[in-house]
Amino acid sequence: MNNCPRCGDKPLTAAEGPGGVALDQCLHCRGVWLDAGELQAVLRAGVGDAAELSLINPGPSDLDCPRCGAKMRRGGLADPLLQADKCAACGGFWLDSGEIPRLKELAASRAAAEPGTPGLNRGINRGPGTETPGLRAGFTSSSMPEDEFASFLHGKAIPFAATIFGFGGGLYQVYKYLNTLDKVPFQTEPGLAGIAQSLGWFLAVTVGCISLFLYGLYMLFRDLSNISEDK
Q: Which residue blocks in 139-184 are alpha helix, DSSP H?
């Protein structure tokens, strides 16, 4: 077996999947190579039609087959949105780390929508102990999507709120400064001690507002740049 087709210089390591199926996994990117028939064995097939695991609308792939070196084809696997790479020469499949959990979710949703349909889902919602720890990390926990609400809070709501509060607080500080040119803002005690204390509060609040504003902008623009790179 050659190196990982995705990483190029990382070796594929033999591992055991569900039902004792022998797989080859890249420990760096967590992608998995399955020889001809192994994907059906992992999923326990159950679709009644082998064409279910043929590629949908296949097109050129950037990856070479790690088994025979042939250029692979990329297309939908059971669904046009679930992309996988297949070698037409030897029939093997390459699945990136996020693709097996998506395949499991698709199978589960199909089984729920069509209870009478033969189970693509059979054998993939198995109990504990059916996968080795390395593959469990590669197939599930390391590649499952974030909780949508937590992702929304961290990626959008909190940075946006920080930007608004920081900007608003900064404007308020400017307003207070311009309206207290004849006296020191926040001064509660007379004398130099009072002046030093009030200036300290003024600077602390101002720096805090600027920090909030810059943090919010950084997080929002970072998300935008990530979206652009993905495209």
A: 148-152, 158-178
Q: What is the pTM of this model?
A: 0.46
Residues listed for the chain: 231
How far apart CA 34 and CA 24 sit, in angstroms, is: 7
Q: Among the residues of 32-157, which ranges form H helices?
A: 38-42, 99-113, 133-136, 148-152
Radius of gyration of the chain (CA): 28
Structural domain of residue 121, as residue ranges? Answer: 12-141
Is 3 domain-assigned?
no
**Cβ atoms of 125 and 105 closer than 8 Å:** no
Is 188 in the same domain as 127? no
CA–CA distance, 4 with 1 (Å, rounded to integer): 9
Tens digits of pLDDT across the chain (231 residues): 678 999 988 899 988 776 677 888 899 888 889 888 887 776 664 443 444 577 888 899 999 999 999 999 999 887 777 888 999 899 899 988 878 777 667 666 655 655 554 444 443 333 333 333 444 444 433 333 444 445 555 556 777 787 888 888 878 877 776 666 555 555 555 556 656 666 777 788 888 888 888 887 887 776 554 444 444
Residues 6+ apart with CB under 8 A from 179: none
How far apart are the C-alpha atoms of 77 and 230, rounded to whole Å?
21
Spatial distance between the Cα atoms of 45 and 67, rounded to a whole number of angstroms: 23
Q: Which amino acid is at 179?
A: N
